[in-house]
Amino acid sequence: MGASESDKDRRIGRRALLVGGAAAAVGTAVLARGELAHLWWRLPGVQKPRVEGAVDFKGALWVAASSGNFRTADRPDDYAIDRVIIHVTQGSYASAVKVFQDPAHQAAAHYIVRQDGDVTQMIRELDVAFHAGNREFNERSVGIEHEGFVDRPQDFTDAMYAASARLTAGVCGRYGIPVDREHVIGHVEVPGTDHTDPGPHWDWDRYMGLVRRAERA
């Protein structure tokens, strides 16, 4: 005796449910494998392979910061980069390097730009530097320190402005960051910060003009 139409519908419905469930399980497994492949280096004791001494800005000097002052990451895959944050060291270049190499300092930027225009990279851009005093902004930004003091306009030299502008233009180009004051900001503009740098003597109009010019070059 043949099955009724309702019985056939139930069997077809059950088969479709099983097939759909199997497909969903396969899809979930593929997704899980993809996530695991992406995150394998986050397991305890595992670090993503790095090229020792590699820099992200051509011509920069590599001087490694203490691992206590940044967090290894895989940006922009795990955290999108959409900001450049401008800092001033409130001290000499040598003092900035010293504190960034001190694990007790608990802070460091990706770069330091000297008054003579030389650039030092201390943390890779793919890693999260503790520079902004705000976790979200740390995760989404590249921090650039500038040698000098906020109350000394003479510390912001022509060579410093030019080198920093090329650096910022390169960062913006790599990550598709718009070259504007919403995306290139001072430390003082980070929510929750108590810092005032780069201070009133930092010439934002001049700087942004140099960044745009470097971006077009």
UniProtKB/TrEMBL annotation:
Protein name per UniProt: N-acetylmuramoyl-L-alanine amidase
SUPFAM superfamilies: N-acetylmuramoyl-L-alanine amidase-like (SSF55846)
Organism of origin: Streptomyces pseudovenezuelae
InterPro entries, sorted: Amidase/PGRP_sf, Amidase_domain, NAMLAA_amidase_2
Annotated N-acetylmuramoyl-L-alanine amidase domain residues: 67-199
Keyword annotations from UniProtKB, A to Z: Cell wall biogenesis/degradation, Hydrolase
Reaction catalyzed: Hydrolyzes the link between N-acetylmuramoyl residues and L-amino acid residues in certain cell-wall glycopeptides
A Pfam match: Amidase_2
Origin: domain of life: Bacteria
Top-rank EC class of the record's enzyme: hydrolase
EC number: 3.5.1.28
SMART domains from the UniProt entry: Ami_2
